[in-house]
Write a structure and sequence with these properties.
The chain is built from 9 helices and 8 strands. 46% of the residues lie in helices and 9% in strands. The chain is mainly alpha-helical and 442 residues long. It has a domain of 78 residues: Orthogonal Bundle (Recoverin, domain 1), CATH 1.10.238. The strands form 4 sheets. The protein has a two-stranded antiparallel ribbon. A two-stranded antiparallel ribbon has the order 2-3. Keywords: Coiled coil, Disulfide bond, Endoplasmic reticulum, Signal. It holds the Pfam family PRKCSH_1. One of its GO terms (cellular component) is glucosidase II complex. This is Glucosidase 2 subunit beta.
Length: 442
């Protein structure tokens, strides 16, 4: 079963009556028995005749069903058939059917008038609401612009205070870094001064081949002397200029402090595996699947070991950053400026959000007001309504007292006929007597 949901946002609706073609005198309830071009079988099943003998003023069927055009049996010539006079019964049924249809049409039309009045009132209400929202929008636009100015005014001192705080922190870090660099320089000077005579000489510098500038040939005395500024030795004061040149390449001979131990969870104690497996499967008879599983387990164990291995020692740069610590909290004055700017931002965002919501309301109202709901807006009540029909086909429409989806059909490929009952299509009914005025034969 196909569940069809139709959201009716009607831009325009046209309704036209469909005339069902059938031989004269055939009621709709028996239309399926009179298929033009196909042989006709008498309704009593007595015989089958060509279709061109239907309504030929000669009764071929015993029940007279081949002559639906004549109900009083007066104009069929000598056929020998005992045709029944069904005029009164057919007239009675037709009157009852038309009476019922007239009542439905009348009630539906009254409902349509009500729908038209409600649609008019609804349209007036929507137009009034649209005007009110437009006024509200103008007020909101002024509020948004005023709050934008307040926000920008509050953000300027906030930005300047943050920049001052950051610069002070950068200056502080630079001072800390310079102090640390001097400490490191003093440590390296002592480390290079092997004879502790207060000087670093060319010979002492040659023990650090990583300082070789070309890194291809051996570290020569001339290259070492060049690093010392062209002299044979330098004291601690002159070593500062040497340190600026070599500090990025220098590798200390001192043993670094061992990293802090990393706590690892105790490994699970595995029970010794039984030797029964080796008895059941000799080495050459072990199934390939088990061998593959063992290899995968070994790979998994290897991956686990790689994953659980402690991280490498932090780089010097990262370590320096940790030593310097994080930027301190803002002072009271700066934090006050930040709070004031944030409050202004929140107020601006709230007003801007309200303006967007108002814009959406205006667009929705304008969209609904501009829709064509019929000549007298009789279909406006269907706006945004959803009607559902569970059917094995597609969908159908008609005048009625209720709004309901009845059935569907597909007359031809890619053409769908939806039958939908609604009082909005009902027309003002004429009197029942005038309906029978042109049909005195009933």
């Amino acid at each position: 079963m196909l569940s069809c949901q139709i959201l009716l946002l009607l831009l325009g609706v046209g309704v036209s009556a469909v005339e069902v073609q059938r031989p004269r005198g055939v009621p709709l309830s028996k239309r399926q028995f009179y298929e033009e071009g196909s042989p006709f079988t008498c309704l009593d099943g007595s015989r089958t005749i060509p279709f061109d003998r239907v309504n030929d003023d000669y009764c071929d069927c015993q029940d007279g069903s081949d002559e639906p055009d004549c109900c009083d049996t007066t104009d069929e010539y000598n056929s020998g058939a005992a045709c029944q006079n069904t005029c009164r019964e057919m007239g009675r049924k037709e009157r009852e059917s038309m009476q019922k249809m007239a009542e439905i049409a009348k009630e539906g039309f009254m409902l349509k008038l009500t729908l038209i009045q409600e649609s008019k009132r609804g349209l007036e209400d929507k137009k009034a609401k649209h005007a009110d929202i437009e006024v509200n929008k103008n007020e909101l636009e002024k509020t948004v612009e005023a709050l934008r100015t307040v926000k920008e005014t509050a953000e300027q001192p906030e930005k300047e205070a943050k920049e001052r705080h950051l610069k002070a922190w950068e200056d502080q870090k630079a001072i800390i870094q310079i102090a640390k660099d001097k400490v490191k320089m003093a440590e390296v000077f002592v480390e290079l001064d092997d004879d502790a005579n207060g000087f670093v000489s060319v010979a002492e510098l040659l023990s650090h081949s990583e300082l070789d500038s070309d890194s291809e040939d051996s570290f020569t005395e001339a290259e070492a002397q060049g690093l010392l500024g062209g002299v044979d030795q330098v004291d601690s004061a002159a070593f500062e200029s040497v340190w600026n040149v070599i500090k990025d390449k220098y590798i200390s001979e001192a043993i670094p402090d061992p990293p802090a131990p990393v706590e690892t969870p105790p490994e699970e104690v595995r029970e010794p595996e039984s030797d029964n497996d080796s008895e059941l499967y000799p080495e050459e008879d072990i199934p390939e699947e088990e061998e593959d599983d063992e290899e995968e387990d070994e790979e998994d164990d290897s991956d686990d070991r790689d994953f659980k291995s402690p991280p490498p020692t932090q780089t010097q740069e990262k370590k320096d950053d940790d030593d310097e610590g994080t930027m301190p909290s803002y002072d009271e004055e700066t934090q006050s400026l930040i709070d004031a700017a944030q409050k202004a931002r929140d107020a601006f965002d709230e007003a801007e959000k309200a303006l967007r919501e108002v814009d959406d309301q205006i667009k929705n109202l304008e969209k609904e007001i501009s829709f064509d709901f019929g000549p007298t807006a009789e279909f406006a009540y269907l706006y945004s309504q959803c009607y559902e029909l569970t059917t094995s086909e597609y969908i159908k429409v008609t005048c009625g007292k209720e709004t309901v989806l009845v059935s569907t059909s597909e007359p031809s490929r890619c053409e769908y006929l939806m039958e939908f009952i609604s009082p909005a299509v009902c027309q003002e009914p004429s009197s029942l007597d005038s309906a029978f005025h042109d049909h005195t034969e009933l």
